[in-house]
């Protein structure tokens, strides 16, 4: 361990990283520093508009954890559906990226819009002083982009959802931010595919993963465990998106698949003939990796925190599923 500690210090020194912890399993994935009391969290919106009263419960939650809060200018901005113009959202987010006092950026809500600003952002200062990026849904754009830069992120609930979230979801966010161990054990779904595996956890919202294919923000899934979830989609859209992922090699060397909430799915007047679970099983039927359904993450009240970019052990049995970070 002494040799490892010396190696970490040399890595941090060579690349200008300060106060970082390097993942023992995969040295390429850098973990931002865990939060401590009196650290500062920024709340911004990279996508849809949102008001200050809507995020007030989240502000109070962070303060109850002993944290300070900086509210971005995009909270209250409005440009049609968006939280301000692309330029305004870019500037607000860039300001938080570059501020060394900010230890985490909590995206206020999803919707649509993060992809419109991702190529305008400069992550130079972030690489020197990385911070936790928190959110889900449309924030998948940031998770994937930052993953390709070599850093861990936190797929978790957002300020808009705090009032309706279950305590288990909020507690998992707190534990993840403050460096407490997290692991999950859930009941088995009959559609699960049993097995035991391990790998770096990646993924996010299926629609966003689909939309990022072919860009520099698209992730590599070889040797990794993929998490997916989605909301308010037609079943044939789910089939189309998964077929595109398959044709792009997403499943060829995958170690495991974790499926979160496939919430409020729609069908046509002429039924597609399969629900979301059967569509997934059909498309990946030729592959031999464990599959978990009904994991509590995504557009759900019980939206548990997941650390993307960190190695997990996944065990799926006929009785239960366990995920250990």
UniProtKB/TrEMBL annotation:
Q: Which residues form the LD-carboxypeptidase C-terminal domain?
A: 198-314
Query: Is Cytoplasm one of the keywords UniProt gives this record?
Result: no
Record-linked CDD domains: Peptidase_S66
Record's protein name: Muramoyltetrapeptide carboxypeptidase
**GO terms of biological process kind:** proteolysis
Q: Which Pfam families match?
A: Peptidase_S66, Peptidase_S66C
Q: Which organism is it from?
A: Lutibacter agarilyticus
Q: Which residue range or ranges hold the LD-carboxypeptidase N-terminal domain?
A: 41-156
The record's InterPro entries line, in alphabetical order, gives: Carboxypeptidase_A_C_sf, Class_I_gatase-like, LdcA_N, Peptidase_S66_N, Peptidase_S66C, S66_fam
Q: Which family does it belong to?
A: Belongs to the peptidase S66 family.
Molecular function GO terms recorded: carboxypeptidase activity; serine-type peptidase activity
What are the UniProt keywords, alphabetically? Carboxypeptidase, Hydrolase, Protease, Serine protease
Quick check: keyword Hydrolase in the entry? yes
The active-site annotation reads 137, 229, 299
């Amino acid at each position: 361990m002494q040799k490892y500690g010396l190696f970490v210090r040399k890595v941090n020194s060579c690349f200008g990283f300060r106060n970082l912890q390097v993942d023992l399993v995969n040295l390429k994935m850098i973990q931002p520093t865990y939060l401590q009391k009196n650290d500062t969290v920024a709340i911004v919106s990279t996508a849809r508009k949102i008001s200050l009263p809507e995020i007030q419960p989240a502000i109070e939650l962070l303060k109850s954890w002993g944290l300070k809060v900086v509210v971005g200018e995009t909270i209250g901005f409005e440009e049609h559906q968006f939280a301000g113009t692309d330029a305004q959202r870019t500037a607000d987010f860039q300001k938080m990226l570059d501020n060394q006092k900010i230890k985490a950026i909590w995206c206020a809500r999803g919707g649509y819009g993060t992809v419109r600003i991702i190529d305008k952002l400069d992550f130079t200062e972030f690489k020197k002083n990385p911070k936790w990026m928190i959110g889900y849904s449309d924030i998948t754009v940031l998770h994937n982009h930052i993953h390709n830069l070599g850093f861990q992120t936190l797929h978790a609930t957002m300020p808009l959802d705090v009032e309706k979230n279950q305590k288990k979801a909020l507690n998992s966010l707190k534990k993840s931010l403050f460096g407490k161990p997290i692991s999950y054990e859930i009941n088995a779904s009959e559609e699960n595919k049993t097995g035991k595996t391990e790998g770096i956890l990646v993924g996010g919202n299926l629609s966003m993963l689909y939309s990022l294919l072919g860009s520099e923000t698209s992730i590599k899934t070889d040797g990794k465990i993929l998490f997916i979830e989605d909301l308010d989609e037609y079943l044939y859209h789910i089939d189309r998106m998964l077929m595109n992922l398959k044709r792009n090699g997403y499943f060829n060397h995958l170690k495991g698949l974790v499926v979160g909430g496939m919430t409020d799915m729609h069908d046509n007047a002429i039924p597609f003939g399969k629900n979301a679970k059967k569509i997934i099983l059909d498309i990946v039927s030729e592959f031999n990796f464990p599959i978990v359904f009904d994991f509590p993450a995504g557009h759900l009240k019980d939206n548990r925190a997941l650390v993307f970019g960190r190695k997990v052990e996944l065990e799926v049995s006929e009785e239960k599923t366990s995920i250990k970070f």
